[in-house]
Amino acid sequence: MLSLIERTAPKDAVHAADMAYAQAFTPTRAAPGHAPYTNAWARRDDVMLEVLHKAQRELPWDALRHCLRRRARHPEAWLAMRAAYAASLASSSAAGYLVGLGDRHLANLLVVEGTGAVVPIDFGYAFGTAVLVSDD
Predict the structure, then answer these.
(1) pLDDT at residue number 107
(2) What is the pLDDT of residue 3?
(3) 96-109 burial, b for 16+ CB within 10 Å, e for fewer?
(4) What is the domain extent for residue 94?
(5) 109 vs 22, 23, 43, 57, 118, CA distance in Å?
(6) Would 97 be classed as within a structural domain?
(7) Phi, psi of 100 (to 5 degrees)
(8) 86/65 Cα distance (integer angstroms)
(9) What pTM did the predictor assign?
(10) How far, in Å, CA of 120 to CA of 15, rounded?
(11) How many domains does the chain have?
(12) Which partner from 4, 27, 54, 136 sits 20 to 30 angstroms from 18, CA to CA?
């Protein structure tokens, strides 16, 4: 997939449900000067809950388990992949929180296909197109 890191693939097995949920936060640009994301924050809680429930209905509860299981050659490998996935996701989440990373979504998480480990990436930050971090 990506040639920068061998044997990795974007964590987009749940991409359709993620996109359906994200559409609720899409800004409207029809009106000139309309502030981005204003419409998302103005929505009622029941509307947002319905969008979340729709995304949950479209995604099987065990989608991640099946994704890892299909890539494992035998049951012991699946257990090792599951453990590596959980440990690496927990440690990268904690490290990201401590250093103040935001913008976590499926497009900037890679899963190593042989081990199940999560590799956090952020191409916008890495290539200088994201918000610059101040030296203060």
Answers:
(1) 78
(2) 44
(3) eeeeeeeeeeebbb
(4) 8-126
(5) 17, 20, 29, 23, 7
(6) yes
(7) 85, 25
(8) 12
(9) 0.56
(10) 17
(11) 1
(12) 4
Structure tokens at 12: 């987009």
Per DSSP, what are the bridge partners of residue 8? 112
**pLDDT digit string (tens) for 65-100?**
888 888 889 999 999 999 999 999 999 989 888 888
Q: At what angle do helices 45-58 and 15-22 cross, to 10 degrees?
A: 170
Decide if 131 is inside a domain.
no
Alpha-carbon distance of 24 to 18, in angstroms, equals 10
Residue ranges in the chain assigned as alpha helix (H): 15-22, 38-42, 45-58, 63-71, 75-99, 123-126
9 phi and psi angles, rounded to 5 deg: -140, 145
pLDDT tens sequence across 17-56: 566 656 665 554 454 555 555 566 666 788 888 888 988 8
Is residue 133 situated within a structural domain?
A: no
Q: Is residue 2 part of a domain?
A: no
